[in-house]
C-alpha cells in the first residue's frame, strides 16, 4: 500500500495549482518573519502607474496576510477547487489554465477600482480563490457537495458561501468581486462563442508554446484532462466531447480528503 505523505500529496497537485500554493506560502512566510514589508505586496494603482511597481498586480492576489485559521481555510479551497478546475476538459490545451490565471488576476485588479477608487483593494487573495471556485461551479454545476450536512449542487455552492458570510456578519464584497471576475471570464469564454459566434478569449500562442514543454503529453498528442467533481482525474487521451453539456462530476465533501 502506497503511503500517503504530505510530500506525495504536494507532488500530486496539478502544476499551476502547485506553483500557486507555493507562491502563496512563500509570500506569507516572507511577510510573517519580516523579511519584507507586507505593504509591498498590496495593490495600489497610483504606485503601479507612477513608480512602475507592476509586481503589485500579482502579489495582491497571492498575499493573504499572516498565518491564521482563515488562511488555512482559503488554502483548502484553493488547492481543492483549483486542482479540479485545472484538470477540467475546457483547459485541455497547454497554457489555457495559465491564461485563465492571468485574465482573472487582471480582472480583479481592474474591477477592484470600482470598490476602492483610485487605489483598488490592497489584498485580492480571497477574491482570487472565489473566482476559481465560481468558475468551477459553472463547469461542474451538478456535482454534489456536502455543506454543513446539507447536500447542494456545484452551481449553488458560491451563493451558499455568500449567504453564510451574511449570516455570520462577514464581509461579502471580496466574494462578490471574485464572483464578478469569474462570471466575466465565463461569459467571454463560453457564452459569447456559443451565442454570438465570436471567440474573444483565446490563449496566446506564446503561452501555449511555453507551457507545452511542461505538458505531460508527447508532441502532437491531444490530451484532455478528465476529472470529476470529486477531484482526482489526470491526463488521458479522450475522444472529442459532444457539444456543450458542460460538467458532470462526482460528489465532494468539504473538509474530507
Number of helices: 10
Structural class: mainly alpha
| Beta-strand percent range | 5-15%
Mean pLDDT: 85
Total count of strands: 5
Low-confidence stretches: 218-253
Could you describe the largest sheet, including whether it forms a barrel?
3 strands, mixed
Account of the protein in words:
This protein is mainly alpha-helical. 53% of the residues lie in helices and 8% in strands. The protein contains ten helices and five strands. The strands form two sheets. The protein has a three-stranded mixed beta sheet, with no helix packed on it. Helix 2 packs antiparallel against helix 5 (69-86). The longest helix is centred in the last third of the chain and has 24 residues, at 173-196.
Question: Which features does this protein show?
Answer:
257 residues, mainly alpha, three-stranded mixed β-sheet, 53% helix
What is the structure about, briefly put?
The protein has 257 residues and is mainly alpha-helical.
Question: How is the topology of this model organized?
Answer:
Layout: H1 6-12, H2 15-32, H3 45-51, H4 56-62, H5 69-86, H6 96-115, H7 125-139, E1 144-147, E2 150-153, H8 157-167, H9 173-196, H10 205-212, E3 224-228, E4 231-236, E5 252-253
Helix pairs in contact: 2-5, 5-7, 6-9, 7-9
